[in-house]
Amino acid sequence: MIFRSYCILAQKTARVLVSGRHQLPTCIWLSLRRSASSMAVCPVLSVQPTRALVDEKFQIVVRNLHPKQEVTVHSLHHSEDKDYWEAFGHYISDENGTVTVMEDASRGGTYTGTEPMGLLWSLRPIPGSRHGLRMRKKNVLSPMVVNISVYKGHMNQGFSEEAALATVVTERWYLAPGVQRVDIREQGVKGTLFIPPGPGLFPAVLDMWGGGGGLVEYRAALLASHGFVALALQYLTPNKERTLDIETGYFEMAYHILQSLPQVSSDRVAVLGLSFGASVTLTLAAYSKTAKPRCCVCISGSHVHPVNKTLFEFFQLMNQSLAKSRIDENNHVIWRDVILPIPTEPDLKVDVGKIKCPLLVVIAQDDQSWATVESTEDMEQIMERSGNRHLLTVLSYPDAGHLIEPPYTPHIRFSNFINQHNREKVIMLWGGQTKPHADAQEDAWEKILLFLQKHLYQDIPPEAKL
């Protein structure tokens, strides 16, 4: 407020000087005019849109700078876990005193080059934060608030101690206006349902996360924001006994609950899973006699999964295999060797040759948590022999890690993780490098949406579409 008042005063002074030029000696008038002009340069920061879905790009422009002025554009987010995350880029204004983040290259900071969304995907905990953090939105009914600021000079630290030249508060939402959120507690199934606005009929997606457990809603909320009824399914919980007695029927029941909703086109249901959720997805697609998904998406998962076993039996086998896990020089746990070599025994992996629907597999070549590259190669061979290889589409990303999430989610190379079998807390190495991982997330999300739209909206009457 003080800085803004200063600028207004300077501009008024300049107008007074111009109107009173004839009353002053020329040398004094020119000197005062230069001073007033310098005082009147007030940087203006524009962020458009200030409120948007998390997968939408924003445009950041800084105007009214001096030509060729060095500035730092900085983002700051206070997470729901009360941790601060920041990202920043170093810019030099053009001859007009303007920085356009979408067009100009960052010379340094947490990202370099021309990166319109670098201020989001390169977010990292501020110095001195707790170790092993991972940013995850818990309450999708509130936005992710990000402060975008511009600072004088090229800064790398000490942002809280300096006054910003300008700041804009932005909101990033997983939930579009009008999307309904409904708790599901039906026939033993627990989850959260997200329904797009309008009468439907809508295609639907059963959304499952991985071995970290709990109820994770933000991807399902974002899917609903793009026109799909989405059910975020909870199936791994802190209650060990409740978790481990779940069998395939639980997932089939969740599928049928979603399928039977009045807003859902019953023959337009997909299943999407990440990590262990991908194993469940493949199992449903290959073996279920009642759940017949129209298409499936598997992210960072494997078909190496005991056939006809409960989760209890699966985790027993996994616990025995953890002897193959490694610890790196930073004491981070690496699980990718646990399922290597890929077994040849039919009862230890899903027979993907039985899958009859289109399947999109998304993998990262630097996945340190699961042997997804080797698994996918084996899946391709099985499907080739079975004659259904044409149903498989593979997206493989160099230098990306295990946690392929919606776009602009900060890359997390390692983080705290609780093993659902023995409740042991470790630091898990997920892998990936920040820039390639960010590119993978953006590209994969766009292609996942296109894949779902192609196979779920196909042949739906136009009046039933959004």
Automatic annotation (TrEMBL):
The active site is at S275, D367, H402. Residues 248-457 form the BAAT/Acyl-CoA thioester hydrolase C-terminal domain. GO terms for molecular function: fatty acyl-CoA hydrolase activity. Residues 55-186 form the Acyl-CoA thioester hydrolase/bile acid-CoA amino acid N-acetyltransferase domain. InterPro entries: AB_hydrolase_fold, Acyl-CoA_thioEstase_long-chain, BAAT_C, Thio_Ohase/aa_AcTrfase, Thio_Ohase/BAAT_N. GO terms for biological process: acyl-CoA metabolic process; fatty acid metabolic process. It holds the Pfam family Bile_Hydr_Trans. Belongs to the C/M/P thioester hydrolase family. This is Peroxisomal succinyl-coenzyme A thioesterase-like isoform X1. It comes from Clupea harengus (Atlantic herring). The lineage of its organism: Eukaryota, Metazoa, Chordata, Craniata, Vertebrata.
